[in-house]
Write a structure and sequence with these properties.
Layout lengths: L5 E4 L3 H22 L9 H24 L6 H4 L3 H12 L11 H21 L18 H34 L4 H7 L1 E4 L15 H19 L4
Antiparallel strand pairs: 1-2
Helix pairs in contact: 1-2, 2-5, 2-8, 5-6
Length: 230
C-alpha cells in the first residue's frame, strides 16, 4: 500500500506575494531593457519604475527574512560550506534529502539572485540616458563612476539572466523528481513522501505587526523613488 503524501504549510502569503510581484517586475524590467518593444507603451520610465518596485520588494524581503515566520527566514535556509558540499554530493548521487524550506543549493541561489537584483536596481538609481531619464541619485558619485556603474548595470543584467536560467532549471529538476515548487509557491503547501529533514515544529505565528512595518518601510522608499521629480 502506497504511503499517503504529507502536506506541510511552508511559504506564507507574504513570501508568495513577494515572489510573484518580483517576477512581474523583473519581466517588465527585462522587456524594456532587452527589446525595442513599443516605445510609447513601455518608455524608459516604465523600466525605472519597475526597478523602484524591485527595490521596495527587496527591502520588504530582507526585513521579512529576519523577522518573518521560520520558513521565510534566511537563517533557516542558508547553510555553511560543509553542509552545502554534502548536499551537492548527495544530489549527484541522486540521494539528496528533501527540505521543507530551500535546500542548501537552493538557499544560496536565492541569496545570489537577491544580491544581483539588489545591485541591478540600486545601480540604476545613479544612471542617466542624457535624454529622457535621470536617476534620483545621478550625479551623487560623479559622471565617471556613473559611467562605470552603467557598464556594470548592463553586465549584471546578463548575469541575472544566467542565474534565472539556473533557477528555472532547478525547478524543472525538482518537478522531474516529483516536487512541484511552482504549485507550492502558489498555495504555500509542499507535499512529501517522507518527513523533510529541516521540518520545524508547528506554532502560532504573530508577525502581522512586523509585516505591516516591513510593508510601510518598503512602500515609503518605493513611493519616494517612484514620484521623485527627475
Amino acid at each position: 500500500m502506497q504511503n499517503e503524501r504529507k502536506q506541510l504549510a511552508v511559504w506564507d502569503v507574504f513570501v508568495r506575494l513577494f515572489h510573484w510581484c518580483l517576477l512581474a517586475a523583473v519581466i517588465i524590467s527585462f522587456y524594456t531593457a532587452k527589446t525595442d518593444g513599443v516605445p510609447f507603451l513601455f518608455p524608459i520610465e516604465a523600466h525605472a519604475q519597475a526597478g523602484y518596485l524591485i527595490i521596495g520588494l527587496l527591502i520588504f524581503r530582507v526585513i521579512w527574512g529576519v523577522s518573518g515566520p521560520v520558513y521565510a527566514r534566511f537563517s533557516t535556509f542558508i547553510y555553511g560550506p560543509t553542509d552545502t558540499a554534502i548536499y551537492a554530493n548527495a544530489l549527484l548521487k541522486r540521494r539528496a534529502p528533501r527540505y521543507a524550506s530551500h535546500n542548501p543549493l537552493g538557499g544560496w541561489m536565492v541569496v545570489l539572485l537577491l544580491l544581483s537584483l539588489s545591485f541591478q536596481a540600486v545601480s540604476g538609481l545613479f544612471l542617466s540616458d542624457d535624454i529622457f531619464f535621470q536617476g534620483p541619485l545621478y550625479g551623487l558619485l560623479g559622471r565617471d563612476i556613473s559611467g562605470e556603474l552603467a557598464s556594470l548595470h548592463s553586465l549584471n543584467s546578463d548575469v541575472l539572466l544566467i542565474l534565472i536560467g539556473i533557477h528555472v532549471a532547478g525547478i524543472i529538476v525538482h518537478a522531474l523528481q516529483g516536487e512541484n515548487l511552482v504549485a507550492a509557491m502558489v498555495t504555500g503547501i509542499k507535499r512529501f513522501n517522507s518527513e523533510p529533514i529541516d521540518i520545524q515544529p508547528a506554532h502560532r505565528t504573530k508577525h502581522r505587526l512586523f509585516a505591516l512595518g516591513a510593508f510601510l518601510v518598503a512602500a515609503g522608499v518605493c513611493g519616494w523613488l517612484w514620484f521623485y521629480p527627475y
